[in-house]
Design goal:
Mean pLDDT: 83
Structural class: mainly alpha
Order of helices and strands: HHHHHHHHHHHHHHHH
Number of strands: 0
Shape: globular
């Protein structure tokens, strides 16, 4: 579920949702943090093969380095491998059976929307996000136009539901117009600052020099370059790394640097999946660490090597696909 939802929504939102689900299903703290660690791995793997699943893939998708069909077709198998291998290893950390959770029925009178209305909102939201790549393909408009269209449809639907319910003034606090005031401006400014800083480094030629240095050091082996970037993304945030690579390497008409070329697809995979190797290496890991109070040392001792094995296995499967299929 985490893997699929992360591709449709994003790895951060999916991790929060799945931790809330885990708290209802797994009462034992020691077992739950193992499941939570696997949620981090699955969320990052699921976000790597989807153009809207992670900030880094969104950046590459918007810049035109990858396409929706190309990244899904060639990265879905490596992403699955990078999740299945750690899941197979981590099953031996869990023993016994989970007790059946108690299901508490909610009072219908306490709910703002009816069950049918909640399902409509869910389908509009998730279906709208899945429609964004299709919208870009059909209209050739920027993806943010599609996102705003989905928001407008959701806004209209919820306002109609509120009007039919004839609720009082207290309902205004839950409406979209009120929720928009709670946008996390700190995070938006953080990403804006990163992109502006990377743009400055690109303008003065620092990133181009770094790119040439990496090419010389690796002798043009893009598997090695992107592999190193993936390991670094577990230490440094993957957003500035991908933004830096976009400044270091221009999109070429042909070859590994072309649209949907080996370099860009591996960059999407390595930056996303590589963040699972340390709990601070991705937004999903940081939020799960805060929710479940997982320590950096516990994760590094028990999970880092497992995530690394999955990471390498996924790269190996990508090499096999590119060598013998495409």
């Amino acid at each position: 579920m985490t893997f699929i939802l992360s591709a449709i929504l994003d790895n951060l939102t999916t991790s929060i949702v799945m931790i809330m689900v885990l708290r209802k299903l797994v009462a034992d703290k020691k077992d739950r943090i193992v499941y939570a660690s696997l949620v981090i791995i699955a969320a990052n793997s699921g976000g790597a093969f989807s153009p809207i699943g992670d900030v880094t893939t969104i950046m590459l998708w918007i810049s035109g380095a990858i396409t929706t069909a190309g990244v899904i077709r060639e990265l879905i198998v490596p992403s699955l491998v990078s999740m299945i291998v750690p899941a197979f290893i981590m099953q031996y950390m869990l023993k016994g059976e989970l007790p059946k959770p108690e299901v508490k029925s909610a009072e219908d009178s306490a709910l703002v929307f009816t069950r049918i209305q909640r399902r409509i909102i869910f389908l509009l939201g998730v279906g709208g996000l899945m429609f964004v790549p299709v919208f870009r393909y059909l209209t050739d408009l920027p993806p943010y136009i599609g996102i705003l269209l989905v928001l407008g449809v959701l806004w209209t639907a919820t306002e109609l539901f509120y009007r039919n319910a004839r609720l009082g003034a207290d309902s205004m606090s839950t409406r979209v117009i009120a929720l928009l005031r709670k946008i996390d401006m700190a995070t938006i400014l953080f990403f804006l600052g990163i992109l502006m800083a990377v743009g400055c480094l690109s303008e003065i030629g620092v990133l181009s020099a770094m790119g040439r240095g990496l090419e010389t050091m690796s002798h043009g082996n893009h598997y090695l370059v992107t592999g190193i970037i993936g390991v670094l993304s577990s230490i440094v945030d993957n957003v500035p790394l991908v933004a830096g690579c976009m400044g270091m390497y221009p999109i070429a008409p042909t070859g590994d640097m072309a649209v949907d070329g080996i370099f860009w697809q591996l960059l999407a995979y390595c930056a996303g999946v590589g963040g699972s190797m340390l709990i601070i290496g991705s937004a999903a890991g940081v939020v799960v660490m805060g929710l479940e109070k997982i320590t950096f040392g516990w994760y590094m001792k028990r999970i880092t090597w497992i995530a690394f094995v999955g990471y390498v296995a996924g790269m190996g499967s990508y090499w096999l696909i590119r060598t013998f299929i495409f």
